[in-house]
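Comment thread on ticket #2218

A.B. wrote:
> Attaching the input chain for the structure job we discussed in standup.
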Amino acid sequence: MFVMGIAGGTGSGKTTFTTTLINRFKDDITVIHHDNYYNILDHLTFEERFV
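C.D. wrote:
> Ran it. Output below, let me know if you need it in another format.
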């Protein structure tokens, strides 16, 4: 097992490259998007978010 990070500027092909990897490795790959680390805080008031 190994971990690969894909980084780059806007429009640099990160999504295209990741999609190519997914299509190539099918069930042998797991993709964790950076945005998946954010907690959704919609159920909290603005004040509760920063306590």
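A.B. wrote:
> Thanks. Noting for the ticket: The radius of gyration is 16 Å.
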